[in-house]
Structures are given as structure tokens and as C-alpha cells.
Amino acid sequence: MSTRIEKRFAALKTEGRAALVTFTMSGDPDYATSLELAKALPKAGADLIELGMPFTDPMADGVAIQAAGLRALKGGQTLIKTLAMVRDFRKDNDDTPIVLMGYYNPIYIYGVNKFLVDAKAAGVDGLIVVDLPPEEDVELCLPALKAGLNFIRLATPTTDDKRLPAVLNNTSGFVYYVSIAGITGSAAPDVGKVSAAVERIKRHTQLPVAVGFGVRNADSARAIAAGADGVVVGSALIDVLRANLDADGKAGPNLVKAVTDLVSEIARGVRSAAKVAAK
Amino acid sequence: MTANQVNSFRTGPDERGHFGIYGGRFVAETLMPNILELEAAYAAAKADPAYQKEMDHHLAHFVGRPSPLYFAERLTQKFGGAKIYFKREDLNHTGAHKVNNVTGQIMLAWRMGKKRILAETGAGMHGVATATLCATFGLPCIVYMGAVDVERQQPNVLRMKMLGAEVRPVTSGSHTLKDAMNEALRDWVTNVSDTFYCIGTVAGPHPYPAMVRDFQCIIGNETRAQMQEAEGRLPDSLVACIGGGSNAMGLFHPFLDDRSVEIYGVEAAGHGIPSGQHAASVAGGRPGVLHGNRTYLLTDADGQIIEAHSISAGLDYPGIGPEHAWLNDMGRVKFLSATDDEAVAAFQLCSQLEGIIPALEPAHALARVFDLAVQKPKDHLMVVNMSGRGDKDLDSVAAFLESKKK
């Protein structure tokens, strides 16, 4: 059994380049705009799509993603609607992997087993749940793997060699390396340290390693892509989205184009990176 | 499992921090190494007689323990039932029970070589206690406090600043305690290597609920000895207010296996449970996951956290400590609630009859003590945790009474 995530990383490895992973918040600022944006992302150069599941209390996120979640909730987004959005996306895209990212409480309240069945049926490929470390694997990670979904874990600068095997055990699809100890939208990481950290993780696993936090433009994406299997960009896209809201917080006419233009620019950066990680 | 099927209520949590289905360690990976480090450091300190000896010294000479167990004679006469005793945590240095826990944690931070202390605060009592201990240990202290709470608890904000702490008002979410905790966690994630997060209640990821409980158990242990001296026996009932529930757990835990002792926790019912504007997680919530633990939470059908409401900033939180959640399900602690109106009435009555201005938090407990006491015989011994003093609340209560006149 191979998921869309595994197939996509395998294909990109053959191509010899890193993946561009985009993060946007589902339902931000409203369902229709958010779906239109998600549908436009692959054409703009996104290889994998992470969709945020909005939550009132995102403890590991900075102001940009906090505000995105609150806008989505204000716009009426729910976990049910996020799954509906994935189904709508899948109507005309069957190969771009979709990863849902968020916090555990909405999934727990939805019901873990029901959520996994519905997510799989909707066309979700993987999950990133920030507040579920390996110590809580019985909650969602193990049932998700059994249901045929990838469970993508975050590794961080504080995850030392002693702890890394525990973090990687039961991780599938790819490893998401959080390049700085901090919240989303923080300052740019030191590129040299990041590639050293990716090398360290790769000594412990065959899985692709994508790097997130602090990627804001083509240059930083290119630098990170040279030493990793994937680059995640989130807060920078959300900042552009926010800049294209009108005074009432509604989507402005150029919102989707503005965000996808930045995605295209970053994609060019990723694709022009000298391949270090592929060796 | 029911209450009759367990041998002891005092053995939790298990090695992964669970009390039944509650508790756990639901935190971002960045924090996990720190949480494991803290767990190991606390276990080592707990086993070190020198640590305990130093803590006893601070509690006796700096905090002023033991706090008295006071017979509230005029309230007892007024209600004509149970003999009402107050455990006077309001007389501790800094004015509340919070300092018991903070003393333990700041000593631990010192042992661990941490150079920067974080705290969240609601009513400000935990913030004041943390700022105080940080002053005595010479450690920099940052206190996150919801902007709404900064407004309604100005005296404590001034105290914290005078003690040298930096108070950071939080303007995300509902601008109250839960948001202060989110912001403190964000700071901790960002400054993980040198920072110690001093949590103020029996909640958060393991080992916090158990560690804070251990530090607060001095309340119940003293009460047991003091009641023995005063009346020659155990109390018949215990009553305490519950936000996160640290003052309650400190009083209750040493008595959990004394099955003759009735135990009541009082949540804040705000404008009333049916109004939806309350902070009663057990009465009006359901099990969910927030701030590192599974517990009773105010959460909607989509799993979003509902903003709590209470006149008491210290109870204005949409969750409860996980051990309380378990004790509720086991039937060992009975959960009641009191509205804003009832708490303010109790606040006034206690001030006028006993000469003790209670904090709004224990005023919630008092509101239920009054109707519980009436139902009990005159030889029934009831202890209420007077967990803090009410100076900080005078402005809030005056404004509340003024608004009622209109």
C-alpha cells in the first residue's frame, strides 16, 4: 500500500528536487475562497497541500496562523466542513497529497474512529496533530496508521539523538522538521544548522524530511531546499492572504492570485536549488 | 469502576500521567524533552531530604505556615447547623494558597539551573506569588495575564510590577486565563532551554497536576492535625472552590481515603449554568483535550473551546485539573456550583459577620457552605478552604453591586 504522499515524494526523488509543501487554513476567510485557493495551489507549484483545521487555542502557532484560524471559525468553518472541502478538492484532483494539520481536541470531540473513516473517504492522506507527541500514540497515531493514513510527526531542535528514535517510530509519509524552537511565523532559521539537523534525522530514518518554520520567499526556500526533501511555507502565504482582505475581513478580488503568485515564486526557488539532499 | 472498587484514591497518576482517562501529556514535541527533564528533576528533588528541609524552612519563615484552622463562630450561629471552620490560606504571605506551590517550583527551577521564570495568572495571586519567590531567588519573572484580568485585578498587577516582574497583557482569544496559558506555552516553546514554566494549578501536562498537588497537600495535612487538636477527630466534610482546582486538591487529597469525609468542590456558575455564561467545566462541559491534558472542558460540538465567564478571575477558566475530573467520575468528590450573585452575597456576609474579606474565589465555596451547613447537625465539622483574601476584589465587587442597583 502506497499513499499519495509516498508516491509524490518517490516521484520527486526521481526528478531530483525537493517538494514544496504549502500550508493554508481551511475556511480562511470563507469556504469558497479557501477551496478556490486550495484548487489553485498545485498549478502554482505546490507538491503537497497542508490544510489547517482551525482551533480556538493553537498553542504552537504565532499571530498569523492564530488569526487565520479565528477568521475561518468566524466564517463558519468546522471540522465537518474541512472534510467536505477535501472531498470538493478531490473532484478534480486525485494526485496531490493532502495533509490535515491542527490540534487534537476537535478530532477527539468528532470521535477518533469516525474521523478516520470520514477523512480517508474524503481523500485525506495524512495528519499532523501538534499536541500529540509519541507518548500519546494510542490516541490517534496508531488508529490512523491502521486506517491507512500517514501520521506525520514534528521533529524539533530539542529532539536529541536519544529521543529521535521514539519520535520516528510510527511516523510515516515524511518527517516534518521544525527548524527553530518556537512558534509558527518566527524568524528565519540558520540554513547551515538546518541541513545539519536534516542529515542527523536522515541517519535515523529512510523517510523524506521536509523543513518548515521561517521560509518566507524564493531565496529562503532555495536555501532550505538544497538540504532537505521538502520545504514547508505557511505564515508567509497567510500574511499575503490577510493583506488581500477588505476592511470587513472579506476576500478581496486579487486574494487567490496574490497568494498563488507567491507560491509560484517560492516554487521557482525550490526547483532551482542545487541538490544536496538527493545524494 | 466505581468508588467501592478502588483500594485507594491517592495512588495516581500512572507513570504516563493518567488519572483514569484524564491527564496525559498533550504538548508540542518542542516541549517534550523539557517536560521529561522536569519529571526527572522533580522525582530526584522529592527523594532528597535536603530539598524538603529547605522547603519546610521557606514555608515556615517566609510564607508563615502553618496557617490557622479558624472556627467561624458567627457564621456557624447564623446557619445553626454544621460547625464551620476556615482553613486560613488567606493569611499566607502574598495572600493566597498559591505560594505553597510556587515555593516548591521555584526551588526546583533553581536546582535545575533555569535562569528565567514564566507564569500565567488569572486573578493575579499566582502571578504575585511567582513574582515574590523570583524576587527572593533573584530570578527574572515574566507573567502572562489576560488583558481583561489586567483591568479587573489592578492591585495585583501593581504588586507584581513592584516585585520586579514583567507583566505581559494578553490580547488573543478571550483575553483571560486560558489565553494567558496559551501565550505562556508559546513563550516556553520559543525559549525552551533556559526557561522554567511555573504553572499555577493542578492542570497542564504530566507531571504538573501531580507536582502542584503534592506542593498543595500541606493544606490538607495541616487541617487533619489541627482538627485533631481542636475537636479530637477528623472533619465530616470539606468544601473548596474549583477553577483549575489547586486549593481544593491540596485540601482534599490527604482525606480521599477517609471514606467518612464528604468532599465538595464548587465551580463558578457565572450567570447560571443554563445561560451558557459560566466556568463550570464539570456541570456544563465534557471530556476534551487542552493545555496538555485531557479533562472536563467547556467545548462545543466542533471541539472549539468556549469562553468561560465568572466574576472571579481566578475561576474564569474553561477546564479543571484532570485528577478532579477523575474524582468526579469516581463519585469521590461531589461537584456543585455557585453563581456570581451567590458569590458576591457570600463575600459580603463573610466580611460582615466574620471580619474576614474573602477572595471572590473562596466566596463561591462559602455560598455552598451556607446551604450545606443548614442541612447538617450541630456536631458536623465542616472545613472550607479560605484560599485567598479579597482585597484585590473590592473594586470588582463594588462595580458589581453598583450595576445591580441600576
Description:
The complex is a heterodimer of chains A (279) and B (406). Chain A is of the alpha/beta class. Chain A has one domain: TIM Barrel, CATH 3.20.20.70. Chain A contains twelve helices and nine strands. Chain A has helices at 4-15, 31-44, 63-74, 79-90, 104-110, 112-122, 141-146, 164-168, 191-202, 218-225, 235-243, 255-271, and strands spanning 19-25, 48-52, 98-102, 126-129, 150-151, 154-155, 175-178, 209-212, 230-233. Chain A has a nine-stranded parallel β-sheet with strand order 5-4-3-2-1-9-8-7-6. In chain A, helix 2 (31-44) crosses helix 4 and helix 11 (235-243) runs antiparallel to helix 12 (255-271). Chain A is globular, with a radius of gyration of 17 Å. Chain B is α/β, with parallel strands linked by helices. Chain B folds into two domains: 18-59 and 97-212, Rossmann fold; 66-95 and 217-405, Rossmann fold (3-Layer(aba) Sandwich), CATH 3.40.50. Chain B contains 16 helices and 14 strands. Chain B has helices at residues 32-46, 49-63, 73-79, 98-112, 125-137, 147-152, 154-162, 177-190, 208-216, 218-231, 246-252, 281-284, 322-330, 340-354, 360-374, 394-405, and strands at residues 18-19, 22-26, 69-71, 83-88, 116-121, 141-146, 166-170, 195-197, 237-241, 262-270, 286-290, 292-297, 334-339, 381-386. The longest helix of chain B is centred in the N-terminal third of the chain and has 15 residues, at 32-46. Chain B starts with 17 loop residues before the first strand and ends with a helix. The mean pLDDT of chain B is 96. Classes of the chains: A alpha/beta (279), B alpha/beta (406). Chain A binds chain B through residues 55-63, 66, 73, 78-80, 103-110, 130-133, 135-136, 153-160, 163, 167, 178, 181-183, 186, and chain B through 16, 24-34, 172-173, 178-179, 182, 185-186, 189-193, 286, 288-292, 294, 297, 299, 301-305.
